[in-house]
Each structure stands twice: as C-alpha cells, then as structure tokens.
Write a structure and sequence with these properties.
The protein is an alpha+beta fold. It has 3 domains: about 30-175, Ubiquitin-like (UB roll) (Roll), CATH 3.10.20.70; about 185-595, Glutamine synthetase/guanido kinase, catalytic domain (Creatine Kinase, Chain A, domain 2); about 595-725, Up-down Bundle (Four Helix Bundle (Hemerythrin (Met), subunit A)). A hairpin with a 5-residue loop joins strand 3 and strand 4. The mean pLDDT is about 90.
Length: about 725
C-alpha cells in the first residue's frame, strides 16, 4: 500500500482511548477559570464589583480609577491560578478569534521586576492588527485599530493566559469585528422589546435575547486527516468515492458513542466546564464519525463568545486525542453535512421567556405578540436572513439538496397555524365583548394545552418554531454565530419598534383599548406574512416552484445571497437601528465576497494539485502494471492474447480516458481561474469563481473517483472514505 496512507492507517488503527479521570463533580468545576460573579465578590472591592455589575446589567460606564481596582483584582486572581500572560481576546472579521499575549512581567526603573496589570491595560489595547481584514475601513480612515473591554462577557483563563473579551474598532469608531455590531443589535432589541413587553407587564426593565447553539462536527483520525492534502488545506475532501456503507442503515444516529470519541467528549466537556461553557448534550449524529455538542442556552453575547471559544477548544482537545475536528459544513460527499442550529428567544429581567406560552390569556397574548412579530420580521427581511448565513462552505448544504434549502421559510406546526387562522378572523376595529371572551378563553387561552402535543418537528425547515423558541437551522457549522445573530436581533428590534408605533397609534387615534389594538395589528400581520409560512417538505422541487410563485427568494450561492447585505433596505435598517453605518456594512460585504473568492481559489488549486500529483501518477502506475500483464499474456498466448486479456485492455483504455479528462478539465479550470483573477470588480470576480471555476470541481472529481474504483487499492495514496469515516 502507498506508504503514507499505509502508515496513517496503521497509526490510526493502533490508537487507544485516552484515559479520562474525573474526580470532581461537573458543578464543582463549572466556571473555575472564569472571573464570574462569585470570583469577583472575592477579589474586588464592593465599589469595583458594583461598577462591573452595573456595566453588565445597564451598560453604564466604568471610570479609569475603578478600572484600576478591577484590574488589580483580576491580576491577583489570575496569578493565584498560575497565569503568566494576558490578552485582549477578540473576533476580527476572519470569523475566528484573535489573541496577542503580553506577560504581566515588567521591569521597573530601579531594576527590580514585578507582575503588573493596570486599568489601562484592562480597558484598552492597541494591537498591531493591520493584517486583519477591514474591508477598506482603515485605509479610508485611520490606520490604527484598538480593542476595548466588553464587561458583559467575563474574563477567563485559557491555558496560562488571562483572556479579556473585547471589541475591535478603528480610531474613528467603525467596528472592525463581529462583537461591536452584535452588542449594538442586542441593545436595539433590548430597547424595542422592553417597550413592547411593558404592554403586558409594567415591571419589565430589560429584555435579553437568548441563544442555544447546537454544534455539529466530524472527528477524523489525525494521521488520516494529515495524509489528505484537501482536508489539511481546505477542511473538506475534494474527492473520494462514497464507501459501500455510508449512513443508509441509520445505525450511527444516537447510537452508542465509540470509546475513543467518548474520551474526547469527556475531556472537552471538562475544559468547557472550567471555562464556564455550560455544555449539556452529546450524541452521535446521522453521518458516520459525525457528532453533536449542545450547551444550555445563554444570553446571546455570551453564547456567541462561548461558541467561538468552543471551536478553538475543540481543536486543542482534539490534538490530545489524535483527532482532527472537522467543522466544515460538507466535509464528505454523499453523507450528511454539519450545521449549527441557533435556538433563539428573548427573556425579560422578570424571568419570562417571551416566546413561551404562559398560564394566563394575558401571557399568551404576550407570547403571540412576540411570536407573530418574529414571523413578520423574518418575512420582511428573508433575503437578509439568508445572506447572514452565506459562505462558500455553507453553499454545499443550502439548496444543494441537503439540510435546509436556500429559501427562507418558517415552520410553526399545525396547532399554531390553526391559532393564526382563528386570529385572522378578528373583527376590524374594537372587539365585541363576546368576541373578546371567545378569543381569550378559547383561542389564546388554550395555546399551552394544544402545544403540548406539538411534537411535529419538520427537519427540512430552515427556521422552525419549537415550542418556546425559534430554531434557525440554516446556520453553518463553521460559522461565527454573531453574523446571523446580528441580523436576527436587528430585524426583530426594527419590527418591534414599528409594532409599538402601530399599536400606540390605534390606541390614541383609534380610541381603542390596548388589547383590541394589539389584536388588530397582529391580525394584519398574519394576513401579510402568510407567504413565509411553510409546513411541507423543504427539500422538494415543488417547494422551490411554490416559493417562486410566492415571491420568496432562492439565492443558492454566496455571491448572489450576499448582495442583499448591500441593498438600500439593509443600509436603512442597520442605520436606523444604530447597528452599523453604511461604511461598516459595505466593509463586511467586501470581506465576505473576498473570502468567498479565496476559498474557491484555494480549493481549485488544491484539487488541481491532488488530481495531477496523486491521482494521475497512481493511475499510470497501475496502468503500467496492466500493460506489463498484457505483454506477458501476449508472450504466452500469442494471437489469443487479445481475447484472454480483453478486460485488462479495456481497463487500460478506460484509465487513459479518465486521465485525459482530468488533465483537460484541470487545464480548463486553471484557465478560468486566471480569467477570474483578472477581473477587477470584486462582485464579478466572485461570480466568475462561482459560475465558471467551481463547476469544474464536480467534473474533475467524477473522473478521479472513477479511477479510485479502478486502481489497485494497494497503490492508492489517499486515505479512502471508509477509512476516514469508520476509523475511530
Ligand atoms: P432539541 O432541539 O435537540 O430537541 P432542545 O429543544 O432541548 O433540544 O434544545 C436545543 C437547544 O435549545 C439547547 O441548546 C437549549 O439550551 C436551547 N434552548 C432551549 N430553550 C431556549 C431558549 N429559551 N432560548 C434559546 N435557546 C434555548
Ligand atoms: Mg435542535
């Protein structure tokens, strides 16, 4: 067998599960490495503690002197845990996390050495971050960017480094990261939702959106993954024939977790506990070697940080177990890809989940208000919602007959569909006392009961209501949740703001009671938003046609989908809600388009390289063996050899045909890539990569995969699907 593949396989097969010893309860571990409330009480003066609390709860500013005290407490805590360095931890627009470590260690004027960390180091840093993508922002404005402490996400210790979550902004105030617009969006939805929640409870002072992500991933043995240049460089396989057994038997989903994997999961969970990431659920997913991890939901900002941190921790723990963690949305053709469902809701500071039906008709009217407003928001901005999850890797799922389609629709279930139908019949204007009683008792009042048996879960819907939250399922497994969360919370903020205006108008000008006004506005929303509701099979061709008739967009590729981000409608939305100005929106668009181009470009290069340097030479080697064989047959059987060696001769010809197809296709692809690179306009370049370069991937792959089936297994250099997917 080809030496690299053979050695990798041998290594992979000889591994034993790492022994994990857990001496402490998980609850005792939880948050040990987090500068959380309990720790703050211990290490901060009462004034400093109060300042942080009030910054977290009400966004108040922390002055420099207090910051000094906070820094002192943080340093003392960190040193007590053997920490040597600190870093401002941020999320530049690469989607990953960034960190630059500085030691606490300092020399003083008199030559002695100390550990130092003051308020100024805590609050603001100026990393030399000129290599992060900025979409032209810092070229047009100021060359420098700085990071600033986000007290709403607690500092934590990772390894021997104190990590301080921060925003990353330019000197003129433009956001250069994901966190800044996210915090602004969360502020906007807090304001708008609190106003609406006050219709139902005057005591509400704050609304926080909540997020529970579900992270899907593949585990591939490190040696095997490293032996494949495509996995190493692009995070997915660019070729590989489907194994005889894939996921047909559905024997992996929720099956018994393999021991080596379980050891990895436990190790990972312990790390998560220490870091305060409240992971709770683990299980096998549908595809072989595919798994899922889900936490208990948290406030959105923290949940986003925790997911970003998790993706990093997953890789690090993976190294200890000789696993490569594959987060790509579609690492293997022919088996399921990975997503990251974003479960989303809103909670009040009075402890109410606004998307959960309650016990009284009033709380159910509140539920309906937030429920229907979400539908309206997604209805009005479906294209922007689609754009928020667009990436080269997620294109393999959306609309590619896998997981949710690229058409955004909402699934609410049969029972709630009926409730909406009944509400649609609410009379125009003031409600009669009978109607009110009927509505309150029999429609709204009965919601919790009917929802108990609302078990119908439509797996094909990209955006589904699941009892007490919406589940945005189209988010990609490798995505930073901030992107969809910025969009979702901004459109909801805008929607709730408009709703309030409409209801107040009816109350004041229409002289209506509050409930009547709410019912009237909701009724109009129900009528207007029917197009976005869909209960059927989202994968079917009929749905694509039906959606088209309904006027819903079906933006299948990233270059097309992203355009919605730079529409006048999007500019106006982000501007009005104070989330991003036009420059910031444009910058993000540019970066995402550019990233798309780079991803496809790299994939094209790697594929060309593997096809020419691995596949073709191997095929030729095998072909030569066949030729030798035929020559031998000829020397023994003379004239008869053509009959006896018929299959071999046909094989020799077939191999030649595939080789020549691969060669010419790689040649053509390279030419298209060169053409695309010459295009100045970024949009057009992305379109060229999408429409002209990418289609070659499938064509080249087809012939490579055919050769994989023809060529002697012993000669094949690349680890095969059955090895990648079933070795654990
Ligand atoms: P599943 O969808 O797999 O059946 P669950 O419904 O229990 O599982 O929850 C899935 C995810 O949704 C979990 O991460 C959970 O914490 C999260 N979740 C539950 N309630 C909320 C909520 N109110 N807001 C946000 N996320 C939530
Ligand atoms: Mg789920």
């Amino acid at each position: 067998m080809a030496i690299i593949r053979y050695q990798a396989l041998k290594e992979a097969l000889s591994r034993k599960p790492v022994v994990i010893v857990e001496n402490e309860k998980r609850s005792a571990l939880f948050g040990q490495n987090v500068f959380n409330e309990a720790t703050m009480r211990q290490y901060l003066t009462p004034d400093a503690f109060k300042a942080v609390k009030s910054a977290v709860d009400y966004g108040s500013k922390i002055d420099r002197k207090v910051a000094d005290y906070i820094a002192m407490g943080m340093k003392e805590w960190a040193l007590s845990k053997g920490v040597t360095h600190y870093t401002h931890w941020f999320q530049p627009l690469t989607g990953a996390t960034a960190e630059k470590h500085d030691a606490f260690f300092e020399t003083t004027m008199d030559g002695s050495v100390i550990e130092k960390f003051g308020g100024s180091q805590l609050v603001q840093q100026e990393p030399d971050a000129s290599s992060f993508p900025n979409g032209g922002i810092r070229n047009t404005f100021e060359a420098r960017g700085y990071t600033a402490w986000d007290p709403t996400s607690p500092a934590f210790i990772y390894g021997t480094t104190l990590c301080i979550p921060t925003v990353f902004v330019s000197y003129t105030g433009e956001a250069l990261d994901y966190k800044t617009p996210l915090l602004r969006a969360l502020h906007a939805i807090d304001q708008a939702a609190t106003e609406v929640a006050k219709y139902f409870d005057k005591n509400v002072r704050k609304v926080v959106p909540t997020l529970g992500w579900e992270q899907e991933y593949f585990l591939v043995d490190k040696a095997l993954a490293d032996s494949r240049p495509d996995i190493a460089l692009t995070g997915r396989t660019l070729l590989g024939h489907a194994p005889a057994k894939g996921q047909q038997l559905e024997d992996h989903y929720f099956g018994s977790i393999p021991s080596r994997v379980l050891a990895y999961m436990r190790d990972l969970e312990v790390e998560c506990m220490l870091l305060g990431i409240p992971v709770k659920t683990r299980h096998n997913e549908v595809a072989p070697n595919q798994f899922e991890l889900a936490p208990i939901f948290e406030e959105v900002n923290l949940a986003v940080d925790h997911n970003s941190l998790l993706m990093d921790v997953m890789q690090k723990v993976g190294e200890r177990h000789a696993f490569r963690v594959v987060l790509h949305e579609k690492p293997f053709a022919g088996v399921n890809g990975s997503g990251k469902h974003n479960n989303w809701s809103m909670a009040t500071d009075t402890g109410v989940n606004l998307l959960s039906p309650g016990r009284t008709p009033m709380s159910n009217l509140q539920f309906l208000t937030f429920f229907i407003n979400t539908i309206k928001a997604v209805h009005d901005y479906e294209e922007l919602v689609r754009a928020s999850i667009a990436s080269a890797s997620n294109d393999h799922r959306l609309g590619a007959n896998e997981a949710p389609p690229a058409i955004i629709s909402i699934f609410i279930g049969e029972q709630l569909t009926k409730v909406l139908q009944e509400l649609e019949g609410v009379s125009d204007g003031k409600l009669s006392p009978e109607e009110k009683t009927e509505l309150k008792l029999n429609v709204v009042g009965k919601i919790p009961e009917i929802m108990l048996d609302n078990t119908d879960r439509n797996r094909t819907s990209p955006f589904a209501f699941t009892g007490n939250k919406f589940e945005f399922r189209a988010v990609g497994s490798s995505a930073n949740c901030a992107n969809p969360m910025i969009t979702l919370n901004t459109i909801m903020a805008k929607q709730l703001k408009d709703f309030k205006v409409e209801v107040d108008k009816l109350i004041e000008e229409g002289n209506m009671k509050k409930d009547d006004a709410i019912f009237n506005v909701l009724r109009e929303y129900i009528k207007k938003t029917k197009n976005i509701l869909f209960e059927g099979d989202g994968y079917s061709d009929e749905w694509a046609e039906e959606a088209k008739r309904r006027g819903l967009t079906n933006n299948k590729t990233t270059p097309v989908a992203l355009k919605a981000k730079v529409s006048p409608k999007a500019y106006a939305l982000y501007e009005e809600m104070g989330v991003m100005n036009r420059v910031e929106v444009e910058a993000r668009y540019e970066i995402e388009v550019e990233e798309y181009v780079k991803k496809i470009q790299i994939e094209g290069r790697v594929l060309g390289d593997i096809a020419r340097n691995h596949v073709i030479p191997t095929a030729i080697r095998y072909q030569n063996m066949l030729i030798e064989n035929v020559k031998g047959l000829k020397s023994i059987f003379e004239k008869e050899y053509e009959k006896i060696g018929k299959e071999q001769i046909a094989l020799i010809r077939e191999i030649s045909e595939h080789i020549s197809e691969i060669n010419s296709k790689v040649e053509e692809m390279t030419q298209e890539r060169k053409n695309a690179n010459r295009i100045d306009h970024a949009d057009h370049r992305a379109a060229a990569y999408c429409d002209k370069v990418k289609p070659f991937f499938e064509k080249i792959r087809y012939h490579c995969d055919k050769l994989e089936l023809l060529v002697d297994d012993e000669l094949w250099t690349l680890a095969k699907y059955r090895e990648l997917l079933f070795t654990r």
